[in-house]
Amino acid sequence: MKIDSSVAAVVTGGASGLGRATAAALRDLGARVALFDKNKELGEQTAAELGALFCEVDVMDEASVDAGFAKARAAHGQERVLVNCAGGGRGGKTIARDKQTGEIVPYKTDDFQWVLGLNTVGTFRCTVKSAAGMAALEPTPEGERGAIVNTGSVAAEEGQIGQVAYAAAKAAIKGMTIVLARDLSSEGIRVNTILPGIMDTPLLGGLKTRAPQVYEGLARSVPFPRRLGTAEEYADLALTMIRNGYLNGETVRLDGAIRMAPR
Fold first, then answer.
1. Domain range for residue 66?
2. Residue 216 lies inside a defined structural domain of this protein
3. Number of structural domains the chain divides into
4. Which UniProt keywords apply (predicted)?
5. Would you name the residues annotated as active-site residues?
6. How far apart are the C-alpha atoms of 263 and 260, rounded to whole Å?
7. Which long-range contacts (CB under 8 A, 24 or more apart) does 105-112 make?
8. pLDDT tens profile 185-207
């Protein structure tokens, strides 16, 4: 798919990190970009800086997502590109022990459901609604109506201690990739997933000042290059997945060849 001013795109989690970098890369190619994010202040600031449209959206809320797509489509037309970057986690072991009392503390089911709701269900919700809109478009000369990029994590394959909910959520995103691609193939819509490794996003970037030794240790754990990945490298792979018409149903690791240890 050629990315230019004729293409409308939606990026969830677009106010910062991987989403912001992807939105910026799409804008650099002329695409009309809408940012979905819960953070209104940062989202409006990012949109102004990039020349994008901000839509205050909680991907865990059906009505909020519907309103976001309605606003984006009213301004830009039906999107041909969706990049799902919204996500997050709540850490904790399946069961832990209180360090003072030795009491067994189970991981809360509510927290498990919240993590799956944000990552897996949120991604699926936006994918379904975007694909339904894409299906109404006229196909390109190559027969394409749209391209969707989802965001998993290397935790989908090597979840660490304390990542039971996050690993499950990201593994589900990886698992549904080929099924989404097959389900949507008759409509000319491609679906691929990126599994990022340790990325230098705002979530980890603060370690540079708060705990530089931890940050440097993370960088040294990557075989090559010995550093954290950048949001721009994620965006570059997302653009490849959008532009390469034969890339479909794939999950691609972006991790410097790291394989995560148990902790």
1. 8-199+230-254
2. no
3. 1
4. Oxidoreductase
5. 166
6. 8
7. 107/164, 107/165, 111/165, 112/164, 112/165, 112/168
8. 999 999 999 999 999 988 776 77
